[in-house]
Amino acid sequence: MITSIFEYEFLRNAFITGAIIGVIAPLLGVFIVVRRLSLIADALSHVTLSGIALSLLMSKTYSWFAGVNPLYLGVVFSCTGAVLIEKLRTVYKHYQELAIPIILSAGIGSGAIFISMADGFNTDLFSYLFGSVSAVSSSDVNLIIGISVIVILVVILLYKELFLLSFDEEHAKASGLRAPWVHLIFILLVALVIAASMRIVGILLVSALMTLPVAASIRIANGFKQTLVLSIIFGEVSVLGGLIAAYYLDLAPGGTIVVLSVFLLLGAILYKKVKVKKSLYDKIRIGGESK
């Protein structure tokens, strides 16, 4: 039955992009969670919504803009929002967390304006909000493949720097690491991944894919690298399992992926509790036998 899914090109496109997103979203999500920047995905996703809404508005207003993929302008807005967050973090040195709600508010406000100018919601915008399997085009696949190559290469090249900044930023700076540049590169990668993920998961749900698999892996992993690997595994299971379930049950793909991620998280929490109780029981039993 599963092979019948791949008879259609749009479904093949969805599974290709889903498999890629299942890797790169949790990959960056681990660093986001460790650095306590979980809300940054929400901020950048709403900024991306503004770019997409503006692109759809321009395509209705100007015929020459109709053939442009809205994701392109969404990527531009997302990257611009990422740069502004970094700039605001330097402005508010003692209140750096303010940068995220400021950009989040700006994204929501401008998005609402562009949507109202376009006479409200339409089918295209709705698919970006909640994800749509049928909306994934060949150009989307090519864009996401390009973004994934960039993300994976940069993470490999800057792994040591990202690791140091995530766990001990002061030591990293003292050792001569150019922290502002690494911060900027990282947040631009996050912006690219958010823009790439919204076709499958949707703008309103993309942050869940970057945090829930990481939250599940943290509960059962031993060490950072194991957390990284398990996050990618949970991300892949969530995306591919969610797409299959959404296809056969006729459900929204984004919502199905996120709900499956929630179940994996609950399973990880339950597994950890059972493991701790079993370990405690074994210690008590061994202690009793030794007496």
From TrEMBL:
It is a multi-pass membrane protein. InterPro entries: ABC_BtuC-like, ABC_TroCD. Keywords: Membrane, Transmembrane, Transmembrane helix, Transport. The keyword Transmembrane helix applies. It is found in: Cell membrane; Membrane. The keyword Zinc does not apply. It comes from the Bacteria. The chain crosses the membrane at residues 14-34, 64-86, 98-121, 141-159, 180-197, 203-221, 228-248, 254-271. It holds the Pfam family ABC-3. Belongs to the ABC-3 integral membrane protein family. This is Metal ABC transporter permease.
